[in-house]
Amino acid sequence: MYKVKVFVTLRESILDPQGTAVKGSLHSLGFEAVEDVRIGKYLEVTIDKSVENIDLAVKEMCEKLLTNVVMEDYRYEVEEVVAP
After folding, report:
1. Is domain 2-80 in CATH 3.30.1280.10, yes or no?
2. Which residue in 37, 47, 72, 73 could disulfide with 19, CB within 3.0 to 4.6 Å?
Protein backbone atom coordinates (compact mmCIF):
# COMPACT_ATOMS: atom_id res chain seq x y z
CA MET A 1 0.00 0.00 0.00
CA TYR A 2 0.99 3.63 -0.37
CA LYS A 3 1.01 6.33 2.26
CA VAL A 4 0.61 9.74 0.66
CA LYS A 5 1.43 12.90 2.61
CA VAL A 6 -0.28 15.96 1.14
CA PHE A 7 0.83 19.49 2.12
CA VAL A 8 -1.58 22.30 1.23
CA THR A 9 -0.74 26.00 1.51
CA LEU A 10 -2.40 29.23 0.44
CA ARG A 11 -0.88 30.73 -2.69
CA GLU A 12 1.53 33.57 -1.97
CA SER A 13 -0.88 36.06 -3.57
CA ILE A 14 -3.68 35.14 -1.13
CA LEU A 15 -3.89 36.99 2.18
CA ASP A 16 -3.68 34.74 5.24
CA PRO A 17 -5.54 36.43 8.13
CA GLN A 18 -5.16 33.37 10.34
CA GLY A 19 -1.39 33.40 9.82
CA THR A 20 -1.32 37.14 10.58
CA ALA A 21 -3.19 36.55 13.85
CA VAL A 22 -0.77 33.78 14.86
CA LYS A 23 2.20 36.02 14.04
CA GLY A 24 0.74 38.74 16.28
CA SER A 25 0.22 36.26 19.10
CA LEU A 26 3.78 34.98 18.76
CA HIS A 27 5.08 38.55 18.94
CA SER A 28 3.03 39.20 22.08
CA LEU A 29 4.58 36.08 23.63
CA GLY A 30 8.05 37.47 23.01
CA PHE A 31 8.90 35.75 19.73
CA GLU A 32 9.72 39.05 18.01
CA ALA A 33 12.01 37.40 15.43
CA VAL A 34 9.04 35.77 13.65
CA GLU A 35 8.65 37.62 10.37
CA ASP A 36 5.73 35.75 8.81
CA VAL A 37 3.36 32.85 9.43
CA ARG A 38 1.35 31.01 6.77
CA ILE A 39 -1.26 28.46 7.83
CA GLY A 40 -1.84 25.30 5.79
CA LYS A 41 -3.22 21.77 5.91
CA TYR A 42 -1.56 18.38 6.19
CA LEU A 43 -3.35 15.20 5.09
CA GLU A 44 -2.33 11.55 5.07
CA VAL A 45 -4.05 9.24 2.60
CA THR A 46 -3.51 5.49 2.50
CA ILE A 47 -4.07 3.99 -0.92
CA ASP A 48 -4.24 0.35 -1.97
CA LYS A 49 -1.33 -0.77 -4.10
CA SER A 50 -3.65 -1.85 -6.92
CA VAL A 51 -3.67 1.73 -8.24
CA GLU A 52 -1.64 1.73 -11.45
CA ASN A 53 -0.64 5.40 -11.61
CA ILE A 54 -0.35 6.68 -8.05
CA ASP A 55 0.78 10.17 -9.11
CA LEU A 56 -2.19 10.64 -11.41
CA ALA A 57 -4.59 9.38 -8.72
CA VAL A 58 -3.19 11.75 -6.08
CA LYS A 59 -3.25 14.74 -8.44
CA GLU A 60 -6.89 14.02 -9.30
CA MET A 61 -7.82 13.71 -5.60
CA CYS A 62 -6.09 16.99 -4.78
CA GLU A 63 -7.57 18.91 -7.67
CA LYS A 64 -11.11 17.53 -7.31
CA LEU A 65 -11.55 17.53 -3.53
CA LEU A 66 -8.58 18.00 -1.21
CA THR A 67 -7.56 21.50 -2.33
CA ASN A 68 -9.07 24.65 -3.71
CA VAL A 69 -6.87 25.01 -6.79
CA VAL A 70 -7.85 28.66 -7.21
CA MET A 71 -6.45 29.66 -3.79
CA GLU A 72 -4.16 26.84 -2.69
CA ASP A 73 -0.99 25.12 -3.81
CA TYR A 74 -0.16 21.55 -2.89
CA ARG A 75 2.70 19.12 -2.93
CA TYR A 76 2.78 15.51 -1.91
CA GLU A 77 5.11 12.67 -1.02
CA VAL A 78 4.37 9.03 -1.79
CA GLU A 79 5.81 6.37 0.46
CA GLU A 80 5.47 2.66 -0.18
CA VAL A 81 4.42 0.91 3.01
CA VAL A 82 4.59 -2.78 3.79
CA ALA A 83 1.51 -3.91 5.70
CA PRO A 84 2.29 -5.51 9.08
Report:
1. yes
2. 37
